[in-house]
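[09:14] KT: can someone run the structure on this one? pasting the chain below
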Amino acid sequence: PIPKIAYSASMGEAKLTDAQREEFRELLKLPEYISMRERYAAQIVRTLTDKPVMDVVDPVLLAEPADFDPITGPRPVMGKYLLAYYTVNPEAWMLKLVDAYAKAHGLKVVEVSVFTHHKLKHRTYTAAGIEQFMALIRGAEAVFSNSLHGTCLSLLYHREFYAMEH
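[09:31] RB: done, structure tokens below
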């Protein structure tokens, strides 16, 4: 049988209720091996299972741009644009900064976010698949993000980027 592995899982903010902790404890029975890319998350998981939990570097930090070519789709946006990628609800100052930068550099704004503050003002992808997401970052003139992956992929693709508060 093939072992079940939870590789470099993320827990996000990881504020678990007692009910969620119990459900998580049950789910942790499935994988035989567990690794976490966030130390605080690994500590939480260690309290919920007796299995060893390894701290690992995020896989995106081990990659080269060409490693992503097979999963990167065609450029979904024509012309020059700034990509704003928010995994946490952006604050007003972030939205103003994005708009000001785009205006100053003659860029349109494209967002990847479930937070639709500017859906009518900007093109917004609320459910971008991995192919679109990778292509959006690769094609952007600049990336503004409050996400680790937005920042890392911007570095990988040599995009100008601004990492904002999470």
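[09:33] KT: thanks! The mean pLDDT is 89.
[09:34] RB: yep, looked fine to me
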